[in-house]
Specification:
single chain, globular, Udp-n-acetylmuramoylalanyl-d-glutamate--2,6- Diaminopimelate Ligase, Chain: A, domain 1, Related to Ngg1p-interacting factor 3, metal ion binding, metal-binding
C-alpha cells in the first residue's frame, strides 16, 4: 500500500514555523511542541493557515468550514501521553475530525514565549511604547533582559529566554502603563484588566504609583515572576495568594486573563512573521496562501456586570 502524502503547503508552513520559533527553545520539562497531528493530503483544502490560542471544537469546525490545510495552535491540544483516541473525548474528537479532513496541527507554545521578537518581547514592546498601536508611537527609554535564558540555544537565538524584565530610565506612572496595555489588548479583553496595588495606597493615588521595573510573562506567570525584584508584575494570571504576596511586598500586579495575554500576538505579530517566513521558505511556484486568525477562539471566561445584565 502506498504511503499517504503530506500537503507540500503544510510541510512548508511547518518549516517556516521552525525557523521562526525553533522547537529547541521550548521548555521540554513540561511542554509538548511541534507537529502534533500530521494529516494526509487532501486536494480540496486551500493553501491557508488558521492561527489560534486554543484548539477547541469551535475552532476545529471553523478550520474545516474554511478548508484550511493547517492549524497553528499556540497551546498544545496533546499535552500528555495518550493511551487511546476516542470520539468520547472532546479534544480527541476534534483531532479525529481534523485528520479525516486532512488538516494538520502544529503547536509552538513556549518556543514562541522564548524567541526574540516573540510573545514576551511583544508584551514588553507594549509597556515600553507610548501610544502603542498608533502612528504616533514613541519608544520609552528602557533596558530589557530575559528572566531565564534558554540553555544551548540554536545559532541566531542566543538572546532567547523565558519572561522579560523591562527597566525604565525614568519611572512611569501605573496609570499610563495600564492605558498602553488596554489600548493594544482591548480587542481581546474588552478593555478590562485586573489590577492589584499595595492596600495602603489611597484610591486617588493608584494611577500615579511610580513604576521603574516590570516583570513580564505571558499566560500563567507565577512560577517565573514570584520573588522577582521589580515594581510591577504583568502576566495573564496569578493565583489569589500569589497576588496577595506581591502587594504585601509593595509590588503592583496587572493581569489580563490567561489567553488574552497571548491572543493579540497572533493578530499583531505572528501572522505577519509567518507570512514573511513562508515566502522565504516556499520553493514552489505557488505564491497564493493565506494566514488568518481564528474568529471562534476566545478566552473561556467573560466579565459580566449586573449594571448591563448578561
Amino acid at each position: 500500500m502506498a504511503s499517504a502524502k503530506v500537503s507540500p503547503f503544510t510541510s512548508t508552513v511547518v518549516a517556516a514555523m521552525r525557523k521562526l520559533y525553533p522547537e529547541k527553545l521550548a521548555d521540554s520539562s513540561f511542554d509538548n511542541t511541534g507537529l502534533l497531528l500530521e494529516a494526509p493530503y487532501r486536494p480540496h483544502l486551500k493553501n491557508s493557515v488558521l492561527l489560534t490560542v486554543d484548539l477547541t471544537k469551535a475552532v476545529a469546525d471553523e478550520a474545516i468550514a474554511r478548508k484550511d490545510s493547517i492549524i497553528i495552535a499556540y497551546h498544545p491540544i496533546i499535552f500528555r501521553p495518550l493511551k487511546s483516541i476516542t470520539l468520547a473525548n472532546t479534544q480527541q474528537n476534534s483531532l479525529l475530525h481534523l485528520a479525516q479532513e486532512g488538516i494538520s496541527v502544529y503547536s509552538p507554545h513556549t518556543a514562541v514565549d522564548a524567541a526574540p521578537e516573540g510573545l514576551n518581547d511583544w508584551l514588553a514592546d507594549i509597556i515600553s511604547t507610548a501610544y502603542p498601536g498608533t502612528s504616533n508611537q514613541v519608544s520609552i527609554p528602557s533596558e530589557r533582559s530575559v528572566i531565564t535564558a534558554v540553555k544551548d540555544a540554536p545559532a541566531g537565538f542566543e538572546k532567547a529566554g523565558y519572561g522579560r524584565i523591562v527597566r525604565f530610565a525614568q519611572a512611569e506612572f501605573l496609570g499610563n502603563i495600564v492605558e498602553r496595555i488596554s489600548h493594544v489588548l482591548q480587542n481581546d479583553t474588552d478593555d478590562k484588566l485586573s489590577i492589584a496595588v499595595p492596600q495602603s495606597t489611597p484610591p486617588e493615588h493608584k494611577k500615579s504609583i511610580p513604576i521603574k521595573s516590570i516583570g513580564i510573562c505571558a499566560g500563567s506567570g507565577g512560577s517565573l515572576l514570584n520573588g522577582l525584584d521589580v515594581d510591577l508584575l504583568f502576566t495573564g494570571e496569578l493565583s489569589h495568594h500569589e497576588a496577595l504576596a506581591a502587594i504585601e511586598q509593595g509590588k503592583c500586579v496587572i493581569t489580563t486573563f490567561h489567553s488574552n495575554s497571548e491572543r493579540g500576538f497572533l493578530r499583531d505579530r505572528m501572522a505577519q512573521q509567518l507570512q514573511t517566513a513562508y515566502a522565504k521558505e516556499n520553493r514552489t511556484n505557488d505564491t497564493k496562501f493565506e494566514v488568518d486568525v481564528s474568529k471562534a477562539d476566545r478566552d473561556p471566561f467573560e466579565i459580566i456586570s449586573s449594571e448591563y445584565g448578561w
